[in-house]
Design goal:
Elements (H helix, E strand, L loop, with lengths): L5 E4 L3 E8 L11 E8 L1 H11 L4 E4 L1 E3 L2 H13 L2 E2 L2 E3 L6 E6 L5 E7 L14 H9 L2 E5 L4 H13 L3 E5 L3 H4 L11 E5 H8 L9 H7 L4 E6 L2 E7 L2 E5 L13 H14 L4 H16 L11 H8 L6 E3 L1
Parallel strand pairs: 1-4, 1-10, 2-8, 4-6, 5-7, 10-11, 11-12, 12-13
Antiparallel strand pairs: 2-3, 8-9, 13-14, 14-15, 15-16
């Protein structure tokens, strides 16, 4: 088995997105367009990290259907080493979202039942034990069961590796609670941070202390187009994302931010520069109709960095 620098566990499924053409009319039929692609928080991050030059392995559950074949093809196109746990008699999970004309989410439906079959016992497979032993960074999203996330995080920490998580949604972020103190970085938006802490704060500067109080030692909280805050131990900083001339689609932007941040982190950059890299990567994705932009590359990331302001360190 080819050794990977980064191992990604979690969602690799089909994303279906309907975009309303005009003003949204709740409770009635809306004209619009339909788009389908491979997606999933973990898979979006895996493809971004691969395009940024890292050797990445993706481990997820998959059905024996045409949707699963679409995910397989997308992994090959992005250069990701694909190691699925395939259940031939099941269907591949899917995420269906309805977006407003400006790209913001109206509502979404997640059919993720197959991920429940990724139990902690699966991690005892020799191949997965080898992956966890050899990868410098282990990244998971919250599509996996809570007990599997905990077992995965503890195994990675036991090998002395950096371990990071993507929150996915307010309903799923709480799956990290059993292992929160062992996660190196957790990437979330404000809604997810509120679900984790029970707090309704609105100021970016307040999140580091609140998240530390529930046991997290490092994380990033995004706030739409407002200042993004990151912390690691007793260090914290904020960066205001540059304004974009056009917003293609918000899907995958948080996954891209995690990718850019972690790419910089494994390269040894400090937290402020990691956050700048994350915001630059998110900007590339926000300009693309795809959840994992084909324009993601080390060269394009360097260009995007020129637009991202310096971090403001917090006391």
């Amino acid at each position: 088995m080819t050794e990977a620098e980064i191992a990604v566990f979690g969602g690799a499924h089909i994303d279906r997105r309907g975009r309303i053409s005009g003003t949204t009319a709740p409770g009635s039929s809306n004209p619009g367009t339909w788009f389908e692609e491979a997606g999933g928080g973990g898979f979006n991050a895996a493809r971004n990290l691969s395009r940024l030059g890292h050797v990445v392995r993706m481990i997820s559950t998959r059905g024996g259907d045409a949707a699963g074949e679409m995910v397989t093809a997308a992994a090959a196109e992005a250069g990701v080493i694909d190691s699925p746990l395939t259940f031939l008699d099941r269907k591949t999970p899917s995420y269906t979202a309805i977006l407003e004309n400006d790209g913001n989410l109206v509502i979404a439906l997640a059919d993720m039942e197959l991920y429940r079959l990724f139990s902690p016992r699966q991690l005892q497979r020799r191949a997965l034990r080898d992956v966890l032993a050899s990868s410098k960074l282990v990244l998971t999203d919250a599509n996996l069961p809570e007990e599997t996330i905990a077992a995965l995080v503890r195994s990675a920490v036991g090998h002395g590796h950096l371990v990071a998580g993507i929150a996915v949604s307010p309903a799923k972020v709480i799956r990290y609670r059993a292992c929160l103190e062992e996660v190196s970085f957790l990437f979330m938006n404000e809604s997810e941070a509120r679900a984790l802490t029970g707090s309704q704060v609105t100021e970016a500067e307040e999140w580091p202390s609140l998240l530390r109080s529930v046991g997290l030692k490092g994380g990033v909280v995004t706030r739409g187009g407002r200042a993004v805050v990151a912390f690691e131990g007793d260090k914290a900083c904020v960066v205001v994302p540059p304004a974009l001339p056009a917003l293609a689609d918000v899907t995958g932007a948080g996954d891209a931010l995690a990718s850019g941040f972690l790419s910089a982190r494994v390269s040894g950059r400090n937290i402020g520069e990691c956050l700048r890299h994350g915001i630059a990567a998110a900007g590339i994705t926000l300009r693309s109709p795809l959840a994992a932009s084909e324009e993601m590359s080390a060269a394009n990331l360097e260009q995007a960095l020129a637009l991202v302001p310096a971090p403001q360190m917090l006391s």
